[in-house]
Each structure stands twice: as C-alpha cells, then as structure tokens.
Amino acid sequence: MQYLAVVDLLTKAQSEAKILKSETEDAVLASNPILESFGNAKTTRNDNSSRFGKFVELFFSDRDSHSVRITGAKIRTYLLERSRLIYQPESERNYHIFYQLCAAAPAAEKKRLSLDRWEAFHYLNQGRAGVVKTINDVHDFKDTQDALSTVGIPVESQWDIFKICAALLHLGNVKVEAAEEDGALDPSQSAISTDDAALEIFTTLLGINKNEFIHCVTKRQTTIRGDTMVTSLSVDLAKVTRDSVTKAIYTKLFDWLVRVINQDLKRESLPEQNFIGVLDIYGFEHFTVNSFEQFCINYANEKLQQEFTKHVFRLEQEEYVREGLENWTMIQFSDNQPCIDLIEGKVGILSMLDDKSKVQNTKDDEFIDGMNKILASPLQKYYIKAKFGNDAFTVKHYAVNVTYTAAGFIDKNKDSVSDEMKDVLKSSSSPFFCEIFSAEAAATEEPAYAQPDKARARRSTLKSKATLGSMFKTSLEELMETIRATEGHYIRCIKPNMAKAAFGFEGPAVLSQLKACGVLETIKISNEGFPSKLTYEEFAEGYFILINSDFWESKDKRDVCKRIISPHVDPSKYRFGNTKIFFKSGQIAFFDARRRERVIFLMNYGQKNIRRFLQRKKYKEALVAISDMQMHAQRYFAEKKLAKLRHEAAVRKAEEERKRVLAEQEAARKQNSVILLQSCVRRRVAVNRRQKLKQEAKNAEKNAERFKEKASNLESKVVSLAAESAAKRSEIQGLVEKTTSLSDQLQHATSALLAAETRIHALEVEVEALKKENHQLQAGRHLAVGPPESVQSGVSMAKSPSRATRRTDRAPSMGRSNSIAAREHHSDLQALRAENDSLKLMLESKNGANAPVAGPVGMKRVPTMTRGKSVYSGDIMQLAEREKQKNHAAEAGSSTTLHPSIQQRTSSMSESAKIQAHRVELLEREDTMVAVCEALIYMVQIPLPAEGKPLVKRDVHFAAHILGSFFVEELDLGMTVELHYLCFDVVDVFRNRALAGDNKHRVSMAFLISNACELLGIVCGLQEAESKKPNNRANMKILSKMRMELYSLLETDLIEAYLTNLKAEVIPLAAAALLETQEVEDFLIRDVKTAWFGTTATETHNDGLSKLNAFLVEIGGALRMYMVDKSIYQRIMMEVLQTVGITSFNELLQRKGFLSPNRAIQIDNNIHTVAGWYSLAGLDAAPALSHLREAVKIAVLRKTTTADIQAVYSVATQLNANQVHQLLYVCYSPSPAPDNVSLPVSLEFREVVRSHAIASKATDILSIEPVKQYQPLKVPNVTVIDKYWHPAVRLSEEIAGLGL
C-alpha cells in the first residue's frame, strides 16, 4: 500500500532523497494485524487463511499537486466464517486472537480473566493444532495491541475487547446436560447447573444475569396470537443456542472493530477522490464436507470469475472485432451465468433457502426435498440430485462439481438469537459490551459490510429478519458494481504444493488451480491475440525518431506508423485496427531497443557537428585577422576618394534646398485654396441646417398650442397639490419651531445644571474647609487638656506624614462661628442639590437618554491645559495652597505638644517609607511624566501583527493600561495636582502625535483612538470605584475633569480629525464607484467623446467599485485590528458611506444627460453591491444612500401622464422639488434604455415638474450637505488594569518600576 502511494511521485522526482510514510499510511497498515488476529485462522491449506472477505479502498490526493499520498481508506468485510468459533476440523485452529490471549496475556490479566492453556477450552482444542511452527502468538499479540493503539482504541477498551474474547472461551466450556425427570435423565429437556464454574466466569465477565441466561438457553418462548408458551429445549438444541450466542457476540465485536477502524481511516478522504481498491477474498473451496460457508464462498467466486471472464476474454475479443482486425477467429470460452442463476435466481437455491428459513421448525431435509422437486429437472444442467439419501446436493461450478451437506444450512442462514436472549445481553452491566451489542450503535455508524438498500430492508423487516444469505447476496452485488466502475487488475494466487513446504512443486495440483482460475484460457488469448496495443497517435509520438524527419509533421498518423513498422517487423506480428495498432508479445520491447539505438546514433552525430563548429570558428577568426590587414591598406585610398565625394555632395545639397523652398511655397498656396473651398461648403451646409431648424421650430410652436389645452387641465390639479404641499410645509415649519424652542430650553437647562454643579462644588469645598478648621480647633482644645490626644495625633502623623494632624491658635469663639457658618452653608448646599436633581431630571426627560455616557451631550471641547494655565488650575492651586498653609500651621502647633517618645518614633522612618518617599519624588518631577508620555504615545513603535498571528488585547492597549497604572499610583498617594498635570500631558502628547502627520496614517490613528478610548474607560472605572468611598469628593472632582478632557480629546482631536482625512480621500472615489462603474453586461453604456478629424473613442470605468472596496476594507481592517470600540467603528464607517452617497448624488446633479435608464440600472446594482458589503459588517447602508437610490427609481419610472407624476413624487420622499426638476431637465436622458422599455418625458410632465420647482425654489436647495447626527460616545468602564510592558516601550528601569 505504501508502494501505491509513492510510485507516481517517484516517476516525477526520482532524485528525492527519502519518502516517509504518513500517519494515514501507518493507520491503513495497522488495520491489517487487527483484522488478521480477529478474522484469520489456520486451515489445512494455509496457516494464516482469511476467513472473511475484505475490500479496502485507498483514497489518494490529487496527482497534479506533486505530492501523491494516501489521504484515507475504507474497509468493507464479507461473510465472516462464524461456524469456526464453535467447531474446527482436524489440524485446524480457531481465530488467532484466542490463542494469542492464552499465550501472551500478562499473569495478572490471565488471573482476572481466568485464562488457562488453550487445551483447557472446548472451542480451541477440537482441531488439536493450537501450536503452529510458523506462528509466534506472543509476538503477534504485541503487534495486535500496537495496531489497536494506532487506530485510536485506548488500552482500557483493548482489555474490554479481550475480556469479551475470554468470556466466549468460558461459554464454550459451559456444560449442557439432560434434566432429571422423576429420578431419570430426560434428553428432551436440558439443564445447566448454577454452580458451573465456566458459567459463573462468563456471566461475571460480561455482567449479565446468570439465571436469566440459563433460562434463555434451556427454554424457548413462543408467542402465538398473544399467548406466550414456554417449552424446554433438548440438549442438542440448547447447545445450538449456546453456540449461537457465541457467534452473535463475536460477530458484533468484529463489526464494531471494523467500524472503529473506518472512523480512524477516514482522515482527509472525500467521496469524490480517486481510490485504488484492494479485494482480498477467499478462493474456491472444495473439502470432504462442504457446508453453508463453502456454498457462499464458491458463489462469490462464481461472480468474480464471471467478471474476470468478461474483462479478459469477452472485452478483449470484442475490442478486436470493434477495431476490425483481419483474419481473427473468436476463441470459445465457457460462461458460468447459468450456474449463477441457479444460485441467485428468483427460483434459486438462496431464495428457496430464505423461504424455508422463514418457517419455524423447518428441517434441512425439507429444504432438500423442495430443491429436488423444482431444480432436479433435465433443463437444469448445473444442479445434481444426490443418488442416495436426502441430506446433500451437488452444484456444477466453473472449476469442479461440489457436493454440499445440507445439515445446518437453515440454522446458519438464520444465524440469530432469540429476542429474550438479546434482552439479557443488552441488560449487561458492562458499558462497553452494551455499546458493541446494541442495535443502536450499529445503526448510527456505517456498517462494516454492505447492507441491503433501505427499501429492501424495510420490506424485509415487515416480513422477517434479513437472512445471512440475502445479506451476502446484496453485499456481493454492490461489490460487483464497484468492480465494474473501476479498472480491474487480477492477481491469481497459486499454491505450489499442499504440504506448505518451501521449494516444492506439485504439477497436478498447480494445473488444477490454473484450470479453476481460467489462467490457461488467458495464456491462449495472449499467444493467439495481440496483448500490446497503442493508438496511432501514441505510437507515432513514441517512435517517430525511427523514420526520416520529413514525415514527422504528417497529419496521417497511420501512414507514419506504417513507415515506422514495415522495415522492422514481420507482418504476422502486428495488426492495424481502426484507431489502434496491435502487437504480439515482445514487440514493444523491440521498438524500445531500436529507439535507444537511434538516440545513441543521433547523439554521436551531434557531437561530431559540435567539433566541426569549433574548428570552423577558429578558421573564421583567422579570416578576420587577414581582413583587418586589408582594411587598413584600403582606408588610405578611401579617404582621398571621400574628400572628392564630399565636395560633389555639397553642390547637390544646395540645389535640392532651392527646389524644396519652391515646392513648399506651391503647397502653401494649394492648402489655402482648399481651406477656402471647405469653408464655403461648410457655410452652405450650415445655412441649410439653419433653415431646417427654423421649420422644426415652427412645427414645435404648433404643437405647443395643442398642448396648452392639456396644460390648463393640469393646472387645477397642480394648484390643489400646491395647497396640500403648503399645508404640509406649514405643519413642518411649526414642528421645526417647536423643536428649536425645545433645543433652547435644553441648552438653558444644561447651562443651569453646570452653574449649579460649580456652585455646589464651591460650597462643598468651603464646608469641608470649615469642618476641618472646626475639627482642628477642637483638637487644639483637647491637646491643652492632656497628653493622650497629643500622643494619638503624633502617631497619626507618623503613619501618614503627608496628612499630619493640624492645629490652629484661633479662639474657641472662632470654632463656634465656623460651625454656625458650616450649618448655613450646609442648608444652602442641600437646596442647590435639590435644584440640581430637578435640572438633571428635566435634562434626561428632554434628551431621552437612559444609558450612562462617557461625556456630556453637546459639550464643547475644553481648551488644552498646560501646567499652571488650565481653566481648572485656579481651583486646584488654591486648594493646594490652603492645604499647605494648614499643614505648616499644624506642624508649628504640634511641635510644642508632641511627646518625646513620639518624636523619636517619627524621626526614625522605616525603609519602606523611604522607598515610598522616593516614588513620590519621582512622580512629582515633570521630566519623569514627560518621558513616560513620550515613550508610551509619541515615540512608541506601533505594533503590527505577525504573519498568521493576529494582535491580542495587551499588544494594542498596553499604553492605556500603563498610563492607567500611573493614574492609580498617584491617586493612591493623594497626589491629585500631579495626577491632573499628568492627564494634561497625556492629552497634549496624544494631540501632538495626531497633528504630527499620523492623522493621515490609518494604522496610527486606529491605534491612538483605541488607546484613548481604553484610557477613558479606565478613568471612568476609577471614578466609579472612588464614588463608593466615603468623603472622597476631591478625588471625584479630579477624575470628573480628567474624564471630560479625555472625552474631548477622543471626540474632537482624534475621531473628527481622522474622519476629515478619510472624507477627503473617499470623495474622489465616490462618483467613479457608484456612477461610472458598469458591472451589468446587458445594460452597458459607452461614453462617446468626439475627437479630431471625425474619429470617436469610447471609455468605460469598471475599477471604481474595486478601489472603493479596497479603501473601505483597509479602514475597517485597521479599526478591527486595533480593537476600536464598536460604536466608534460604526460611526466612522457610516460617516464615510454618507460622504460617498452625498458626493455621488451632488455629482449626478451636475452631469447633463447622464442619467439614462440603463445608467440607472448600473447605479442601482452598484448601490446594492456597497450595501451588501456593509450588511456583511452588520451595518445598514440604506439611510446613507437614500438620495441616490430615489434618483435611480425616478429614472426608470414612466413620465407621461398625471398618474406618473404622482408616482414620481411618491417615490421622492427625501428629494425636494428643485432636485427632481434638476434630475428630469438636466441629468435625465431617455436613451439608451432597455430594449423593451421606452421612457420619454412628455411635455406636460415637464411643465408640471417645472411649476413645482418654481413654487418651492425659495426654500429648496439643490446640492445637499452631510448632516451630523451626533451621538455621545458610550465607553464601557475598565476595572482591571493589565500592567504589561510591551517590547516597543523604551523606559528606564527606575521609571518603569513606578507603573508596576
């Protein structure tokens, strides 16, 4: 099989060093030891005889791929010899697997399975041939285990298989005895002792109920018309039942193994792939006693012999007749079709056997009687009735007459166990045994052998169960169909002697085998016929070199072949057919030798000519040297002659120049005369055309008078439509005014809300300061009382030096006044909070926004903040200054009251405090934060995906998460001012990177937008976390301002800048993609442009859509690659598409006579194509292309009657009257149009459209502009920060440690 896989590849590349087997080939080869162990046995003629038929299909890869290999395989089996399980003739063995288990199973497993030597089992010792010299059971058992592992069966399942095999051996040792009846043994009733050791082991291994099994073996349950009868079986029938269970279980196990092998061998194979089938099936069998198995085997050989005869004899000779070979005499051969009809015919042996099998309690002699009555007639020559007795019959096969013993034919054909026994086996406690025995498992998998077709199986189940004979017949028919559909090659195995000895040859035995196989007739045809045949083209292509080259290009290949053959071969050794040449054996080799000699001659001839060429080259070089010497001698004389010739040439040139000037003057005079003549002719043509146009104008005036009456009828309808339109416009105007007033109220509410928030925050700060002062006054008063409070204060300061306890020297009266002021501010604060809540409710009711957003609706961008100059820096610096003054005052006051022990404890800081102080010092340095921002944003190298490996989240958002870790660090240290400065630095660096030219680079902008969005989510997550902490309003205010700054950066500096550049790039592509691309071949339009001298040129543009597609794919790919938020992705893609639609529509309005019906169909196809692209991305492209789609619909509508006017305006829901007028008067052209459509615009239709446009011209606009439907960004909170340092980030270890 490995040879079949690599032979074709070796013919193409013989220089390859080594070809290794693939895993699929190993699996195919591994199936062979498994099937041999479970399906082969020793017979009298062969030590490893296959007791089942096997058909292996090897699927191969495409031979054009230059790597031919086995991609998969499939195995089908036929007729496993089940009777061998329970009986073996003398010197024969059971299946190999049983002897392998007894010889090679480990001691522990032997003890668990209760295995002994093979002589101890009834199913193995009948043939007395358990040991064979040529078979090593120990080595074969290891190979079987390795093969089972190769096909994917785990070790646990392997020992489950061996456990079933061991159980069958013990079942054969179960003793069935006659039952006692009234103190005497009754052979008509059977019994099995419950103390039988073999029975106990069998039921334990398979996990079935012992008593139920005994009952099913010794009793028979019959149901007739609803009544159930239980009868005792005789000893012989009970043994048959026991053996039937053995055969049924082993058959299920064998079929399960074949299904598992097929599942593993499927691999990469497909049904349509090429395959090579290998059929390994039993040969013709003729023993002293021949039973049902030999009958089925010989029936299969009859079918195969018929196919072989048809292939070798009939088809070969039919080809001779078809090709018209002269003087050919047909060879007579025997046809075995009558014998096949005797076996499988409607009134054949198999059909009669099935009929007898359907009747209960039918005996074998009744089957013989039925065949003798029907088949034993003079007309049937292939059936022979037995001379004596009624227990055998003879069939005349193609090889030899075989007498079959009828004993057991019906039971073997049924080959089934009772339903009660099946229920007992299915109730096993072993899951593996239930899996292989259940019918459901066999139904879900592909059967190991061919089943009858579904219709036939359905009919058979209605009547009775399918018999073994019918199943074998159906599978054999499918095998024949497969063989006929392929190119067959036959291998005949001839046994040289019956003793199975080396170098022994028995002539009579070999001759009988050759006769049985039909080999002698094949040799006869080969001697008398012409086995080698080639077409004329193949022969001429292979051996044309043997004749003169004058005939190589001849189209008459038969004549070429005659010229090649006639000089070399005797006429009796070849024949000419109609299309082929037929040769006797050995002639092709003769011509190959002649061709090889011819090639050697031509090579020698070529070498001779090459040598001649080299010598001639040397001779020519000598001639060149001689000619050079002659040249120099002649040069001197030539130069003298040249001077004389130059003088004569100058005289001739002067004369020619004079003649040329005169000729040019004459040509100019003639050209002027021709131009004058052409102008006169053109003037005359123009005058005639002008007169014709005047006449057409007079006719048009007459037609206009005729149409005025129709126009007057339409005016009334137009007036009514205008009135309705005015009413609708007034209603729309009222809605617009209402919307404007609501928008003003919304803005007032928003401003009031912001003012309230500002006032609340100021009051909160002031209240907080008053509370702190009040607390400090009370703390000072307590410190004056005794040292415990001072000790506690000192400890607090030692734990948190940045937030030490503060004191003040103010009087107690100041504390009381502060508390009063605090209560007053608290009441004001509560009132402002109530007002703020009411404004928020009103704002939410107007906006209808229920989901939290990352920034305020309609918020203007906050100006860029630098250190000390931000719009918020005043509040922050004032708070910081007040805190600093309070800290100094607290330190001054507490220095006089601290206990000495506390001072000593606070002066000696721990090592961790020093490290913390060093981190704070680094974070306070401005150059540190600038270096971090530049390394993470401005100078970072944007990561790109590796080949076949997309980017992951940490490869994209590492900058945002590292900055977020710095935010968290400064927030935890209480460095709110530095945190605010860091946020401004980040925003500035993002903005500088975007303005440095990266806004035109799609990958860079996608990276910046994604990281800015992720950083905004981190700040929102921090704000949510801080909101859950008490007394944390300062941090909340800082985080709120940071969120607003990042929101403004993302919305204005990144997304809007990115969109501006994208729109500038997509505008030149819009019209070429949607208006000029023509992909519908039935409606192509040629844009004709007039050139000079009356010639024309046509242009078509069909690459616009592809360019637009490439542009959109590049944008979307960059946004998805860098994991931009879905809402931002949708906004960018939709605004780009809106720009495409609006640009295309405005361009269409400017093109005169461009919009024809054919053009409208092309544009509509382009719109559908673009909409399809967006639908694949989950986006709706309809709103962005609505104006262009309505223009297309108007172009294909009829435009003649008043009803058509209503249809046009019903379609134009997005277009105004002025735009419809522009489309129909300027852009529309009625031709070209489809062949079956005529769409001219009537005069009255034009007048109505023009009146509508004049009425609404003051309010309607012609060109449209993009409408920004601004929606606030919804950024999800990020609560987990990934502190991953990407290799692209370059920072010192000291600074990098701050963010970890």
TrEMBL record:
Residues 786-827 are annotated as: Disordered. GO terms for molecular function: actin filament binding; ATP binding; microfilament motor activity. GO terms for biological process: actin filament organization. It holds the Pfam family DIL. SMART domains: DIL, MYSc. The keyword Isomerase does not apply. GO terms for cellular component: cytoplasm; membrane; myosin complex. Residues 476-498 are annotated as: Actin-binding. Residues 644-724, 753-780 form a coiled coil. Keywords: Actin-binding, ATP-binding, Coiled coil, Motor protein, Myosin, Nucleotide-binding. The keyword Nucleotide-binding applies. It comes from the Eukaryota. Residues 1001-1251 form the Dilute domain. Residues 1-596 form the Myosin motor domain. PANTHER family: DILUTE CLASS UNCONVENTIONAL MYOSIN, ISOFORM C, MYOSIN. Belongs to the TRAFAC class myosin-kinesin ATPase superfamily. Myosin family. This is Myosin motor domain-containing protein. It comes from Chytriomyces confervae.
